[in-house]
Every structure is written in structure tokens, then in C-alpha cells.
Amino acid sequence: MKQERAAHTRQSLIRSAAEAFEQHGYVRASLAQISSSAGVSTGALHFHFANKAALASTVEASAAVVLRRSAQAAQRPDLNALQQLISTSHALADQLCHDAVARAGYRLNCETPHRTGLELRGEWQECVRHLLARAAEDHLLADGIACEDLTTSVTAATIGFEVLGRRDFGWLSPASLTRFWRLVLPRWATAPTLAGLDPEQRPATT
């Protein structure tokens, strides 16, 4: 029972910290505020986390876990590489829209990427590059489309959705991403590939 309570307290502190970092920023968020929102004492907070930096690092690491899990679930083996890219973008946007820990951890990492050694934007760029390289190998891309140029465009656009989504969750909605994919896919994909793509597809909830 003690271990269960300790695990519950730790998770409550992580979520409370994420909400505080998201609302006030890392510098202005206070440990007293975080512990109060979690319903525990500052002493209990310090039992789990030495300081605010340690708590922020844990929020970042937690965000990395859930975002990677969402990306992996979206890349189903029955989908071609372009459809996997579409589905992954929807899955990550949905996670950022509905999960405060994912949002706060991602934002903390983007603002101070060297604190934990994580580089979540870089991971997303590599994911995009990998899937587009596979799409090229499978002859899914139209003639004259350079993978590196496409990687730059997709990465920049989707990161832009995340930044704008900090103030307006509408940018992270399925409708926003669907409009983006409907706009660009006819230029990038071969005609036979385009006919089989679903710009709205998101992985099924498990």
C-alpha cells in the first residue's frame, strides 16, 4: 500500500508540475504551488524530487515516453510509409492536445533541450526523414520530389502547428492536420498512392 501511495503521489506531482509549467513557465512556477495543487506537502515533494530542475526533467522524460509510444502505435505495419507519417502526425497532435504532461514536457524540452539530453523536435525530424526515405524507396513519391526538401517542409509545418497550438488547440485538431495533408499530398504522392491515402486517418484507440 505504501508503494502504491508513493507512486500515486509521484504521478500527481508530475501532472501538477506539468500544469504549472504550462501555465506559468518554468521560471515562475513554484514548488509550493505545485505541491499544493497535488494535495501534498512540500516535504513530500522533496521526498520524490530534489528540486524544480529534477521535477522538470521528469516531466520531459514522461512526455518523451508517451509521445514515442503514440508514434510507434501509429506506424502500423499494414500501412505504407506515407500513411504512417500522416497517422503519426495525427497521433502526436492528439497527444499534445489532450495530455498536459506531453505538452509541458515537449515545450520544456524545446526551450531547454540540453538539460536532459533529450531532443524531441530532433526525434520528430528523424522520424519524418525515415518515413519519407521509405516512401521514396517504395516509389510512393512523385517524380522530382527531393526527400530532404520534403523532410524540411513537413517538419517545419508540423512544428508550426505545435507552436500555434499552445495558444489555440484548434491548430492541433484533426481538422487542421487533415487540411494540411489534403493540400500537400496531391503534389508529393504518385497518383496511385494518393488514391489509397487517408489524410484523416488516426490510429484506433486501444
UniProtKB/TrEMBL annotation:
Segments of the chain annotated as binding DNA: 30-49
Transcription is among the record's keywords: yes
Pfam families: TetR_N
Keywords (A to Z) from UniProt: DNA-binding, Transcription, Transcription regulation
Domain HTH tetR-type stretches: 7-67
GO molecular function: DNA-binding transcription factor activity; transcription cis-regulatory region binding
This protein's record includes keyword Transcription: yes
Tree of life domain: Bacteria
Protein name: TetR family transcriptional regulator
